[in-house]
Amino acid sequence: MSPAIAAALALGSAYAAVGAAVAIVAAATRTLHLAVGPILVAGVLVHLVLVSPAVGVAAPVALLIAIGVGVLLSAVLGPVVLDRLPTGAPALIGLVVAAGVIDAVVARTITARPVVADVLVPTPAIADVDPAVVAALLIGVPLALGCSVLLARTRWGRLVRIVGGEPDAAVALGRSPGVVRASALGLAGGAAVIAGLLAAPLVTVSTAQAGGLTVRAVAAAALLGTGGPLTALVGGFLLGAAEVAGGAWWPAAGAEVVVAGVVVAALVVRGDQQRRSWGRPW
Amino acid sequence: MSRLRRPGTGGPAGRTAGCLERPSVAAAVLASVVLLVTLGPDPVPVAGARLLALAALVAAAGVTVARVRAVDLGAAAVAGVGALTGAVLPAVAGWPALLGLPLGVVSGAVLGTLHGAVIGRTGRQLGALATLAIGVAVVQVLGTLDVIGGVGGFHAVGLATRGGDRSDALAVGIVALVVIVAAGAAARRPRAAAAAVATADPALAASLGRSPVVDVAVVGGIGGGLLGAGGALLAVVDGSVVPGAYGLQLVAALVVGASVGGAGWLGPLVGAALVWGPTTLFPLAPLVGSAPVLLTAGPLGLGLLAWRRGRSLLPPAPAASLTPGNDARRRRGVDDGTAMEASSGTSPPVLRLRGTPTPSGPVDLTVARGEIVAVTGPNGSGKSTLLARIGGQLPDDGTVDLDGRAAPRGARRRARAGVARSWQRPPEVAVADIRVTARLGGGDLDAEAAAADLLGPTVTTTPAGAQLIRVVGSRPLVALLDEPTDLPPDLVGRLVRLLAAGGAAVVLVDHRPEVAAYADHVERLGGDEEVGG
Fold it and tell me: Which residues in A lie closer than 8 A to residue B141 (C-beta atoms)?
């Protein structure tokens, strides 16, 4: 397998994993999780700092702490932002402002320089494929599929869909829409950190990339319509391929340019369908 | 005859905002701020000029973010492009700063137009994603340019004058003032109202004959041009441009400043003061002066937005009123006299359906000028689907004829051909914006006033009443009313009679027998045809 294809598959798996979780947030809140990028960066940087020789925390513990940071940062956006602002522009603006605050805090408090991260889970090279790629495929794809099962086949997933469609119905069932939304957001935060750690050996993850990572995570969920986590899987691989192709074409900025081109083209070409499929409140 | 109430000025807060947003009051306040900044002791002039430049950026971002409610997450990148072309390019070429300003405006307008078109095409939420993607790519490309300083930052032209800090601050303040005033004026344009409708509800915009892509692109272009000017101005004050600074944090700062302040003339000053004021006024304070601006402005802005339920502190001034003639009537050749004489028995059919598909099966229907047809049927029988196929919101497979010819495709073209419709759930869009947008296509104030008289002052101001007034004011060839159940049967009945008397072929979906009694003909979907009325 060529390194480019392997990198595309690995990045695609990572973006699919976070995209699938973002799709669950969309199902619960009818809002795109525009703060997911800085949360991903925060979790990855926390992990890198904790496992660095200066701190020396064991990798599994550092992983748990990093995921906890992601879950907490994301879940708190429910009660702090989404539950307090009307849907539509105010909710989106609230998420963007929260993203900016998280980005600013991380940029100020975590001064670690971007480093090439270790592979998240020690994985043997299979048929000369980079262990980082193997790890990304073995963790990212099942994570995305797990999100799909979670949304489609579990009671919690049904509750998520009820809350997204008609919050009053959830209240009538004795469930709190706020708690369900926060749990979906927390899941996305945790998945984002895992995805970030899967991608970190292959791409730079720092606060400067927060916007670009947000684009990839959210676009994976939204690019091909409202198919949910399974669609995010395809979207993730598409974006991974676009990023690698763009990087090969123009190393300095090609990845962002091609990813933006793919996102805009996919959304614009299917504009009417996208608007209809994402529903009226969008 | 009752007067249509101007929205947004009803309560005490609205009156206060209305007073502050009067052009004369706003101009006086803004001029006073510029003078105070200029005359203050050092370092007030330079710090104040920077704050005014930032207020100009907030004002420019507010055109789309606060007025149109389109979440343009590429706004910072637009400002960055404006800074580079408006301030760095003159430095490279040795031009005076003010010559660079038009370049910043043009480059910002081009990028802003692209953002607006994408938002108009994809809607608010996906538009936010698309503009973020474009913005990230643009900033990345800017970072690769090696004009003078390379990726670490570019040297921009210095301040405009050679007369010291005060004259520099005055020059910057005046240009910032112009940008703020221009942004406030742009927010009052009818086109901004049309863009707001297009962003909130593209289907409604199309049913009013508008193109969401064009309307949002035009307003995005204006906002982008002003963002470009603001970016150039800020770069001139700072003396440098660092591409990485035009990323996520600046976007967040701009949108929170614009959202909290509002899109009027004074709102941007409030927004900029909220975001950058503490850092500017207390640069030596331990936390406030050194921490990123969003650390304090972010939570404060979110708290204010939550308190105001997403509304800005200073509500935008109402859109400039239009004084339409009777364009709709002239365009469609509807004459009052002949219309009043129209009757179902003698008039030629205006609307003819030939096997139009619905969930209950194909429907054949003929409606003449001045005729009222009520469509009834159980839930899911396809009543709203039928209206959507007539209105062009759904494809009709060429089964709809208007005035003897095949109806044009699409809701926008059909609206321009004279099809007007109301919705079962009134759109969640400001009534005033819908009214202004409808009048852009040529409305009839007399007809609107007649409908408002009929409905009464209380109903007139409700979304349900407003959309019916809009339908009447458009003097339609075909009027489609989808379950106006928010209104009492007698009001609906009298209103459809008014529409029919004006010459419209009326198709009304309503379950209530009292309403159906006003119809000349009742078409039942999912059952046998009945004749009533």
Answer: 253, 256-257
